């Protein structure tokens, strides 16, 4: 199949975003980029009640504005105008409002299929080539890059290979890249639900003795549910019929949105904090969940990955060297180290604090929420972290 400058393994949201961030500069420099993806991207978007979605921070909006894509994404991105944080069984509560932060929205929620469509349609076929459906089954290091072995027995050489094939990547292990893993002893139950009252752009973080629960606003007055439960209990929730499931959700969430009337397909997956021990090697970079996988309750995972993606693209294009140059990749790694450390730490601390039922910690947590409105600097810091503006003012 010849040789390209960059091979992006995984054409999902992270991989496609990297291709988009690179394509203008790559065209000037004559670089060729190939996206290798097992599943053909769909161009004919169809709304679905059960569509999986992602929380996009305000900082992520700024990134997609820079890439010229936000106006298209915004057509089906539901703005988060307010975040309400509460603790079941305790009096503490806090509210973050977009108007108080001087932004049109604290964040947005968009269906992954819609994000993918917007990204794929924006790619320039003169610079970015799809190899799809195809899967990379092996990576062989060369003096000046990598040789990718594909499942159709063909091979492709590249100067820089970017792993963006998700948290279950077999290639990461094949390359001998270890991971640091901290299981939370929890699973996330994921579903879309419809309440009887309008959500009005409100997102809810509800903390219970069994783990946190989040409801995020979606178009058509749906809400994306992320319900964290002890590992053994998630399967029980999936086995309930719709009426029983909604009744238990109502009991844990309350009536802030009236009564829950509909629930779609439910899925669950176990939760761990996972970080790759290496994110760069000569001619190799890891992006997205293959580099770090966070608890979903704080909504930081995709937004951190997108900041990594933009930073990698900028670092590659600023360098006079060919993509894959190790010194360039090390500069990217150092550039993102603090953002990753603080974001991972923020997400992990929020998760652990609000997943405990210990009386002393729960009482302190409640007082902290109650005092949030009395401490504007702390509230603003938390809001900027949630909006993805904690490290880089440009998002």
Automatic annotation (TrEMBL):
Q: Which GO terms describe its molecular function?
A: oxidoreductase activity
Q: Please name the SUPFAM superfamilies in this protein's record.
A: FAD/NAD(P)-binding domain (SSF51905)
Q: According to the UniProt record, what class of enzyme is this?
A: oxidoreductase
Which co-factors does it depend on? Answer: FAD
| Family annotation (NCBIfam families) | PRK05732.1, Ubi-OHases, UbiH
Gene3D superfamilies hit by this protein: FAD/NAD(P)-binding domain
Keyword entries, A-Z: FAD, Flavoprotein, Monooxygenase, Oxidoreductase
Hey, which family's this protein in?
Answer: Belongs to the UbiH/COQ6 family.
Q: In which pathway does it act?
A: Cofactor biosynthesis; ubiquinone biosynthesis
Pfam families named among the record's database cross-references: FAD_binding_3
Q: Tell me the protein's name.
A: 2-octaprenyl-6-methoxyphenyl hydroxylase
Query: Which Enzyme Commission number(s) are listed?
Result: 1.14.13.-
Q: Where is the FAD-binding domain?
A: 4-337
Q: Which organism is it from?
A: Azotobacter bryophylli
InterPro entries this protein is in?
FAD-bd (IPR002938), FAD/NAD-bd_sf (IPR036188), UbiH (IPR011295), UbiH/COQ6 (IPR010971), UbiH/COQ6_monooxygenase (IPR051205)
